[in-house]
User: Which sequence fits this backbone?
């Protein structure tokens, strides 16, 4: 798939807004935090897939592919999404 940088830039704010809804992890309220994080991350996954993206998320980490750009992270889906957004920013600057 060819890179659709214009599409990626248009999608960027929507993904950023979804990621901001993912709460920080808290050991004080572990069960509540995990439930809230899982709910928010399912919404992020649904958003990406609704826009034609693909996600791999397993014990090795996560990969996000959308608009022809792929990003990974061994820290999981949230970090892979932030890495994808960094890639969009860098490619928009010509890097």
Assistant:
């Amino acid at each position: 798939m060819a890179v659709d940088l214009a599409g990626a830039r248009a999608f960027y704010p929507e993904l950023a807004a979804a990621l901001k809804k993912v709460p920080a992890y808290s050991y004080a309220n572990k069960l509540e935090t995990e439930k809230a994080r899982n709910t928010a991350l399912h919404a992020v996954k649904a958003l990406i897939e609704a826009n034609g993206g693909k996600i791999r998320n397993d014990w090795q980490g996560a990969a996000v592919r959308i608009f022809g750009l792929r990003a990974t992270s061994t820290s999981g889906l949230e970090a892979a999404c932030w890495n994808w957004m960094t890639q969009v920013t860098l490619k928009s600057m010509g890097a």
